[in-house]
Amino acid sequence: MKINTTGAQAEELGDALMENGAVSVTFQDTHDNPVFEPLPGETRLWGDTDVIALFDAETDMHEVIAGLEPHPLLGAGFPHKIEQIEDKDWEREWMDNFHPMRFGQRLWICPSWRDVPEPEAVNVMLDPGLAFGTGTHPTTALCLSWLDGLDLTGKTVIDFGCGSGILAIAALKLGAASAIGIDIDPQAIQASRANAERNGVSERLSLFLPHEQPADLSADVVVANILAGPLRELAPLIGVLPVTGGHLGLSGVLASQAASVCEAYEEKFALDPVAEKEEWCRITGIRR
């Protein structure tokens, strides 16, 4: 069931749908703009929002509608749309559409269940599990291409917000001596560890939740593929991680947000021209 509403009412309607039997509720911007997860403790509201509720196929939707009509935000005959979703093995559907991908000159990201197209290339075998990061998103692709273009031989790399571990593992296979992955999600730490073991680099990858990370962390290369808001807010923390002369790569940023993120880092870094891909961008620079 899809109900169009305003951002201010979306959460309350989501609660009402859950109370009337929905197994999940998601919010989608009506204009199909990117909608991001809020920061911890933050409530993110959108101007025009579709509230989308998923129900079991056996649910009597007439009963659901009757249960929702008394709600003060809806009323009798409230506008809505109901669609039947085809029953699929969604995990298999996703796996069938995740193909090996090349980034830069040397690097391939290959699903762990597929054959490697170029055995002589630098191949990262990946099973993201429940963590973000497969290489299919433009922000990940921008970071992978950037890493492929650096000379990482013997370098230390920090992957801030490591997700599946894709960037840290790619850096290690591109020649980095060691890498450190940091993420707030324990499932990301678990996925990164499993992918590092799959690629034979687990002994060179250290993984930390934020409260566990050493106080004196530093690296030759730091990459953070998260979101514009956290990149701005965490600039004092992220900005001190690269050594003097070290490289910084930031992504997860819309092109329209690039200027504000650059502003947060330009004092400590000599920034390169912003690279763009499909309305997303990558910000890189060298620590002054």
Task: Describe it.
- The chain is an alpha/beta fold and 288 residues long.
- The protein is built from nine helices and 14 strands.
- The strands form three sheets. Strands 7, 8, 9, 10, 11, 12, 13 and 14 form an eight-stranded mixed sheet that branches.
- It is globular and about 65 Å long.
- 35% of the residues are buried.
- The model is unreliable at 33-39 and 42-47 (pLDDT under 50).
In short:
27% of the residues lie in helices and 27% in strands. By secondary structure, it is of the alpha/beta class. Strand 8, helix 6 and strand 9 form a beta-alpha-beta unit.
Number of strands: 14
Helix-strand string = EHEEHHEEEHEHEHEEHHEHEEE
Radius of gyration from CA coordinates: 22 Å
How would you sum up the global shape?
A: globular
For the largest beta-sheet, the strand count, sense and barrel status come to: 8 strands, mixed
Percent strand equals 25-35%
The SS-based structural class is alpha/beta
Summarize the SSE layout with pairings:
Blueprint (H helix, E strand, L loop, with lengths): L1 E5 H13 L4 E6 L18 E7 L6 H8 L21 H7 L4 E3 L3 E5 L10 E5 L11 H11 L7 E5 L5 H8 L4 E5 L3 H13 L6 E4 L10 E7 L2 H6 L1 H4 L3 E13 L3 H8 L3 E3 L3 E3 L2 E8 L1
Parallel strand pairs: 5-6, 7-8, 7-10, 8-9, 10-11
Antiparallel strand pairs: 1-3, 2-3, 4-5, 11-14, 12-14, 13-14
